[in-house]
Amino acid sequence: MKMRAGLLVTGAACALVIGLGFASPVQAADTMPTKAMPAAEPLWWYEGFAEVGGRFDLNHPDKTTLGKFYEYRDLRPGVFGNFFVGAHRNGADPLDIELWGKNVGWDDQAFGLDFAKPGTYYLTLGWDETPHVFSKDAQTMYNGVGTNNLTLPTFLTPPTTAGTNATILANSHTIDLQYRRDTASAGARWTPTDNWDVSADYTHMHREGTQGLGAVSFSGTGGTRSTFELPRPVDDTTQNGNIKAEYAGSTPWNKPFNVALGGGISVYDNSDTSLTFQNPWNPVNGANRPLNNLYSLAPSNKAETVNVSGGVGLPFNSRYMGTFQYSKLQSDDATLPWTINPLVPAVTTITPSRDASTMLFNNVLHTDITSTLKSTLKYRYYNYDTNDDSPVVVQPTWYNNPDTNTTATKTAETRYPRNFTKQNADAELAWQTFKWLTLGASYDWERWNREFRNVAVTNENTGKVFADSKWGFSTLHASLQYGQRRYDQYINFDGANIDAYRMQDLANRDRTKGQVMWAVDVTRMITVTPNGGFLHDDYKTDIEFFTPGEIGLKKTNSWNVGIDGTLNVNRDLAFFASYNYEDGYRQVYENAATPMANVETTDRIHTFIFGTKITVIPAKLFLDANYTYMKSTSEWDLGCT
After folding, report:
1. Which of 110, 225, 232, 372 has the fewest Cβ atoms surrounding its Cβ within 10 A?
2. Distance between CA 234 and CA 212 in Å, rounded?
């Protein structure tokens, strides 16, 4: 049941005109008609509505089984309501004030206040709650759910038996695995003149509850690996703030330009940066079977950003657009201890600051050479750099399995930061040969400069041609590209990989790629779109099974064909169907001691999709339903010597 009431109040002024006649009579032809004065526009006017509705269940479902149904909303039975109130002032000094609320009193409620003087300033305030429900019937033996210290009421005796399962059931209790987001927001905009636009916004989001976490420990006298699902605590705050000022004007050569300066800050604060839990199989602590285990959670961190962007019209029908952005990333949380097991020797680590910075410089120059020939030039520079390039060092003796003394390593372990610079340059020409046909070609260059990797520099050069065609009843898009990536030198940087091993993102590669799509309007209601493509990656390495042969991926080739069909019955109802076939081939080889392998795999995938889109209530309620069927086969050809 839903009730809705509306209120509209207006005010108007009217004038009373009294005329005095002369003593002498007046002829009918001399009578002047009197036109009523128009009603004055009301100074203030108001609007508003209130909605009240109710929800109830017909079959009394078990609420604990509806976690997915309630994932991002609160749909419990009861009374709910929405409201809106607005006040508006007309005239030379207009003003708009609006207050609204949604799902008032529930866990997904929201409120907002908008205050604006149109054309001058705007202020928006908001607050909302959003649940995130994972499960309403999760079972756990742990006490302390919601904190970062999980303890057990009893322990288990291996191996697993019916009695063990009975103990687990007897000591388990049901918990809600969920958290809630409370978000407060504020935004302001000021436009003092037609040229200036200044804006600022701020959000404060707090999350509180529990979430699942997969963990590993070691159990029993032999230190057997065990896995657990834990309810980890969620209690963190994220604050984001941004400010920007933009000016738009005209250049001395009578071309438009705009420039914007902005900055932002993001602060994440986690109340729980670690989680301690007990292993139910270890009632007594051992050197290789810890009772208490330590797991790290997300650290608190902060990011600050400043950016400048703009665009300017240039002579010769050109326009330049550019962006510069610099960000500083920080985290001051202390490093967690290697172990909390008192029977495991302490491990010494050297952990330098991992504060980092990023820099982005993006440029685009577009030129209309003629009315039918256009060019676009692009250059992008991105750099990621840590403030301290020193590696993290774990001093010997250290242990691969946390909180245990197993798998001792007698040599120091080092981990270097992944600093890099990536540059992209692109040049494109597009020629509209006919009104219905555009042909084009482009050249792309990509360069990676890496620190502390097996390859310092890679360069990739790619050429591409394309065609776009649109006439009466159909649209065609087709492209073909070929590229080569080459590295300068491959070295065994960290000792983790032998020189013959080729990393997929570093290896030499020749790539050929093609795509085509043709959308045909068979009738006003039916559109059919055949499509296809292929991708051939050839990693230019030596697969001979003798030194200095190389190890890794040699080839990955695939091609696909498909067809899509859409039936638009009307603006509110449509049906669609799709079929796609993909054939993929990979060759991986190993140059090692006998037996040496040359593995070739072929995957064939058939995908069918059927669906419908229905507009139940225009602009308010939509229904999408689809069904997907996929069948795949994989063939392996394993050759060994």
Report:
1. 225
2. 10
Q: Is the peptide bond before 192 cis (omega within 30 degrees of 0)?
A: no
CB 502 within 8 A of CB 539: yes
What is the distance between the alpha carbons of residues 403 and 219, in angstroms, rounded to a whole number?
A: 11
Give dist(CA 80, CA 57) in Å, integer. Answer: 15
C-alpha to C-alpha distances, 115 to 86, 95, 98, 110, 186, nearest whole angstrom: 10, 8, 7, 17, 11
What element of type H or E holds 569? strand 552-570
Cross-strand bridge partners of residue 614: 573, 623
Using alpha carbons, select from 416, 415, 354 the residue that is nearest to residue 386. 354
- Say if CB 129 and CB 108 are below 8 A apart: yes
Half-sphere exposure of 528 (CA within 13 A, CB side): 4
What is residue 507's three-state secondary structure?
Answer: coil
Euclidean distance between CA atoms 427 and 376, whole angstroms = 6
Q: How open is the CA angle 440-443-449, to the nearest 5 degrees?
A: 155
- 7 pLDDT band, cuts 50/70/90, is very low
| Residue listed under structure tokens 């419990």 | 76
Please state, in angstroms and as integers, the Cα–Cα distance from residue 235 to each residue in 209, 232, 298, 336, 368, following that order. Answer: 7, 10, 11, 19, 54
- Please state, in angstroms and as integers, the Cα–Cα distance from residue 418 to each residue in 167, 301, 351, 504, 579, following that order: 48, 19, 15, 16, 42
Residue pair 234/422 in contact by the 8 Å Cβ criterion: no
Euclidean distance between CA atoms 343 and 223, whole angstroms: 14
CA distance 397 to 405: 10
**Is the pLDDT at 146 greater than 90, yes or no?**
yes
3-state secondary structure of 592: coil
Please provide the DSSP assignment of 218-286 as one string.
EETTTTEEEEEEEEEEEEEEEEEEEEEEEEEEE-TTS-EEEEEEEEEEEEEEES-SEEEEE-TT-SS--
Q: Is 434 helix (H, G, I), strand (E, B) or coil?
A: strand
Note the pLDDT tens digit of each residue in 467-497: 999 988 899 999 999 999 998 877 766 655 5
User: pLDDT per residue over 328-347, tens digit each?
Assistant: 999 988 888 888 888 888 88
Mean pLDDT computed over every residue of the chain: 87
Using CA atoms, how far apart are residues 407 and 413, in angstroms rounded to an integer?
14
Highest mean predicted confidence (pLDDT) among 31-45, 544-558, 561-575? 561-575
Give the up-direction half-sphere exposure of residue 202: CA atoms within 13 A in the CB hemisphere: 6
C-alpha 604/C-alpha 590 separation (Å) is 24
